[in-house]
Amino acid sequence: MFGLFSFSVVMTPLGPVVSVMVSVAVDGPYSYRVPEGMVVTRGSIVVVPLGPRPTLGVVWGEPKDNFAHNRTKDIAHVFDVPPLSEELLRTIDWVARYTLAQPGMVLRGALRSREALDPPRPIIAYERAGSPPERMTEARARVLSVMDDGFPWAKPALIGASGVSAAVVDGLVKSGALRQVEIPAPPPVLPPEPDYAPATLSAGQQAGLDMIRAHDNGGFSVALLDGITGSGKTEVFFESVADALVAGRQVAVILPEIALTHTFLDRFEKRFGQRAAEWHSEMTPVQRARVWRGVLTGDVRAVIGARSALFLPFRELGLLVLDEEHDGAFKQADRVNYHGRDMAIVRAAMAEARVILSSATPSVESRNNANIGRYAHVRLESRFADAALPDITALDMRIDGPEKGQWIAPKLARAVFDALDREEQALLFLNRRGYAPLTLCRTCGHQYQCPECSTWLVEHRFRGVLMCHHCGHEERAPDVCGSCGATDSLVAVGPGIERIAEEVATRFPGARTVVLSSDMGSMRQIRDRFAEIARGEYDIIIGTQLVAKGHHFEKLSLVGVIDADLGLAHGDPRAAEKTFQVLTQVTGRAGRESRSGKAFLQTYHPDHQVMRAMISGDREGFYAHELEVRKQGGLPPFGRLAALIVSGNEHLEAMGYARAIMAAAPLAEGVRRFGPADAPVAMVRGRHRIRILVQSPKEFDLSGYVRFWLQNSPPAKGNLRVQVDIDPMSFY
Ligand code: ADP
Ligand code: ZN
């Protein structure tokens, strides 16, 4: 392992002028002078003056230009940390080029902790010094006996272990019996132990692991671990984690959902005897700093985190695991529009590391790569310990639908009663937060809309508000119609999970119920709810996608999907795939322990290809069909897509600008352009949104094309903006 001052990095000093990538929104690196006595190399983290402000940056290499060096400013400071690795710098360049983001903004994602760059503050501790004090009390004696182990003790630990007050310790210091010393801060986590508690793999799991190992060439490779929920994929990739650790390399497991981290950390600790370091947006700056620095120095060997962990400063990255690799949450959609799965593959390729993509419902893209042999295709066919897959039934809402004013069909209600009788748990799934997606006035027809977005306001009855799910706008739920003033005239249209909870309360009055969605409190509160469910403290769970992911509840034997069609209707080429994935995941929650589970899909389209695949359990048929559809349409993974979103305060102006961009489009063979057209959600946060969609053949450099196109388009003036989304995942 690397101690702080033993970086195994060959420093090739650069100078006297170098290029520095600053972590702000600029297009490329700037030149700076290396002052006398300072040594920097490619990857050194520095502070440079940028305009009036000192700015964090990274030495990128030799300067591009060779003139005007007399006017270049000096690098202000170089931090005493190892330089960022070559592979990370190349990943940053690649991501910027591919996504058309500014490299400085991508770099900012890698420099997420400013505090980490300062030396960690040492810990004040005490050790025995010379002879015992002249005045010996019982309390003093206790302290000294604790310290008989001869090690330095930090004050809080010493007080805790000897049960004395701080004054006693201070008195011993004053009397000269104890001496204050500084000890280095401990690493954030201890190294995991690869052979701490390996699982005994089933024959199927072992075969999968053998296949993963057989594909290990010591460098870059990708394996798709494709197995139904509960088939034991985690146990298999844990063995690959162990292999990488034994080989002296760092490992990261990337999860789509922060709420899953804790369960996963516990599982990791059971397997490896130590906790992995965690990395996500809910950590404190101090925690972040310790992990970031530990990753950079090599003290941290394993990280479990969100997609931003892909940009951590690993030095010896050996394995990236993406759990639930199909999950749309891996796509980041703010300043830098990258897809975590694709970036994991890029980073691993740069680092000569391995990738394991794990999923019960792989993305169509990954399945295609496995089919054509680009990825090793590792299948786990059966559930561990022969737990059965749930028996899935479609409830045709046109025939078997619920009574007016209800959302739970009679057959599903019957099954809930049966589960309650057997003292098992039922999950009612609806991927819509709040009480109702629309509030309408019966008298005048007024629909409550967001003032800033072209969306309906969703009623959240628990909190008594109407809320926009796009911009967060909230207003108090009204009693009288804001448009015509009619009283008792407002109706809620359609269900959200709160409304299902209301129905459950009246129809299953004795049942203990819990409602769970991402807006229901902090990560800790949600974690507590999950733990309570796992302990069987609830009979009926009502939840959104949050409960569909990863969790595993022993007593859960019934899943009812309130609206299986939700998500099928959009102009999204992945609508069928996404629906198949979420339905498979949520129904897979039923019957994970050896009891057999049941699932019901409430649908108006029981003959839809997705519903048929669900009911017959024909996942292979689903993938084959979906791949064929994509091939016919030239859609991913057989073609490429990019979206340009033009936005502005005035519709006319934004549309005019979008037309001007369209008119500047370079011709290229096989490239098709659609639009400009108002986006399905035509206004967000007061800005009008206009879409242009570009489709190209697979082999085509679509990023390069769009960059060239925009360089040759009129520049965005005033409040106008163009956002580029290469490989868009959402089409709203
Ligand atoms: P997946 O990741 O494919 O959904 P998991 O790895 O979570 O499946 O395994 C499902 C359950 O079976 C878990 O409770 C896990 O601990 C258990 N399990 C899987 N493989 C083994 C094994 N080889 N030995 C013991 N328990 C196992
Ligand atoms: Zn809004």
Description:
The protein is an alpha/beta fold. It folds into five domains: 10-111, PriA, 3(prime) DNA-binding domain (GIY-YIG endonuclease, 3-Layer(aba) Sandwich), CATH 3.40.1440.60; 123-183, Arc Repressor Mutant, subunit A (Orthogonal Bundle), CATH 1.10.10.10; 203-385, P-loop containing nucleotide triphosphate hydrolases (Rossmann fold, 3-Layer(aba) Sandwich); 387-432 and 495-627, P-loop containing nucleotide triphosphate hydrolases (Rossmann fold, 3-Layer(aba) Sandwich), CATH 3.40.50; 639-726, Ribosomal protein S10 (Alpha-Beta Plaits, 2-Layer Sandwich), CATH 3.30.70.600. The protein is 30% helix and 23% strand. The chain contains 21 helices and 30 strands. The strands form seven sheets. The protein has a seven-stranded parallel sheet with strand order 11-12-10-13-14-9-15, sandwiched between helices. Strands 16-26-25-17-24-23 form a six-stranded parallel sheet, sandwiched between helices. The longest helix has 15 residues, at 619-633. It is globular, with a radius of gyration of 29 Å. The two termini are 48 Å apart. 44% of the residues are buried. Mean pLDDT is 90; it is low at 1-8. Bound molecules: adenosine-5'-diphosphate (ADP) and zinc ion (ZN).
